[in-house]
Amino acid sequence: MSNAAWETLSNQAVGAAGIVYFLALLAHLAEWASLRQPKGTEKRVAVGSAGLAEVAPAPTTRETERAEFLGRLGFLLTVIAAVAHAVSLVGRGMAGDPNRVPWGNMYEFTLTGSCLVTVMYLVLYRRLRLSWMAPLVLGFVLTVLMAARLWLYEPVAPLTEALNSYWLMIHVTAAIIATGAFTLGGIASAVYLVKMRAQSRLPEGAELTGFLARVPTLDGLDRVAYRVHAFAFPVWTFAVLITGPIWAHQAWSRYWNWDPKEVWAFITWVVYAGYLHARATAGWKGRNAALLALLGVATLWWNFIGVNFFAGNNSQHSYADRPPAVVGPYDVRG
What we know:
The protein has 334 residues and is an all-alpha fold. It has helices at 3-34, 61-95, 106-124, 134-152, 166-200, 211-214, 218-252, 260-282, 287-310; strands at residues 43-46, 52-55.
């Protein structure tokens, strides 16, 4: 296949992945909707001095079977979408001349990062029982894919000289894996805060209904968030404090340059280090830990998006965010 054919395949695979992600999202939304009772089927139960509260009856066997089928269908569609997503990355790499890893600019990094979010969700699906996270993960990935295709797309171009290094694969692979895991942990932390707030507003003796009633307990959400963050932190440490400085020294003869990307990557490391340290020493759990985790994911995505748009011209990493023709003045070529 020619380079143009590979690039066309990549673009078509992105479109196919977006369509299948959308179908998977619809399947999971239908799964949750099938477990909700029609209006007027509630039953009233006494809840002590608080009076009466409406509680939906348990789903029937038919509703449960329909929900299980839709859940399996949604998972299968997610796997198919992830395969198409991966094909789009392979196509981008093969379209380069010479062939290269598909991490040469912000569009390609966004494709790879969103793909890793999906892959990590699928890998941890059974181990951490993440079926409840499906609509949130699919909605996030679909939104990121649409934004990348509409606003970040760039034609395939050769890697700049500074990026043409084996350290690109090592450093960026670790950063992308950590980004995917931190994003999943951030989703769990956000759901924790939403469920905690919803529970605090319930009348005494009442129970949650709908989506929040079917996500894990607050303790379960807290454990999921902690386990994912505990995995991602050493990977991020390897990317930011080990491979990054080594590559910087090789490219620019300095381990640390106070570049906006480097500074914000270190800020992200400090926030997550504080999150894990507070849990291990001060026993921080629940609300405080969730808020700190959301601060961490905010700094992570600001480093990825905000720094690129608002400080790119002052960053030595600007060559990774723009086409070579409009690279900022701090691009070091060799």
